[in-house]
């Protein structure tokens, strides 16, 4: 199918696009822009071409009324008391809960203090690791001044 083809759109979608296009043109938009905006609006509202095919959106559209009918039927089975109880529960969950005061003042203060502690720990750890790398670089040289290789380690050359 060619790009821009309207073959997969239903008659209703085409009428919808035509009406929207006329509205844009009445406001002074060019014909080309009005058409593009109209089809973009139709796509946004309906999700694209609704005519059948193997992966058709039309199947889902046909099924929607059945789903709605099933939901309405289930709602009719509930008693008025059940409906009002669920409404009360929903209303209660929408109300704001009062903020409890913490021992150290406010929660934000406690968070700030904890953040500072974590930063302090990070900086002290990073300085330790820097010192450790400095020591490692001197380990290759033995105490007698010879360059350290794996074989020459102390007098006997053996490792403990």
From TrEMBL:
UniProt biased composition (Low complexity): 81-93
Bias type Basic and acidic residues, positions: 15-30
Chain intervals with Basic residues compositional bias: 1-14, 59-80, 109-120, 128-142
Segments of skewed composition (Gly residues): 46-55
Source organism superkingdom: Bacteria
Region annotation (Disordered) ranges: 1-160
Protein name: Transcriptional regulator
Species name: Myxococcus llanfairpwllgwyngyllgogerychwyrndrobwllllantysiliogogogochensis
């Amino acid at each position: 199918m060619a790009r821009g083809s309207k073959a997969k759109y239903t008659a209703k979608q085409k009428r919808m696009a035509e009406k929207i296009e006329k509205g844009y043109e009445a406001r002074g938009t060019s014909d080309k822009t009005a058409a593009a905006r109209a089809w973009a609006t139709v796509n946004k509202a309906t999700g694209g071409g609704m005519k059948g095919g193997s992966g058709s959106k039309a199947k889902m559209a046909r099924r929607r009324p059945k789903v709605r009918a099933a939901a309405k039927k289930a709602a009719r089975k509930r008693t008025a008391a059940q409906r009002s109880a669920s409404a009360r529960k929903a209303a209660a969950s929408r109300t704001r809960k009062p903020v409890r005061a913490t021992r150290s003042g406010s929660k934000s203060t406690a968070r700030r203090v904890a953040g500072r502690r974590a930063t302090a720990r990070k900086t002290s750890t990073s300085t330790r690791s820097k010192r450790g790398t400095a020591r490692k670089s001197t380990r290759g040289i033995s105490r007698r001044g010879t360059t350290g290789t794996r074989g020459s380690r102390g007098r006997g050359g053996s490792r403990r």
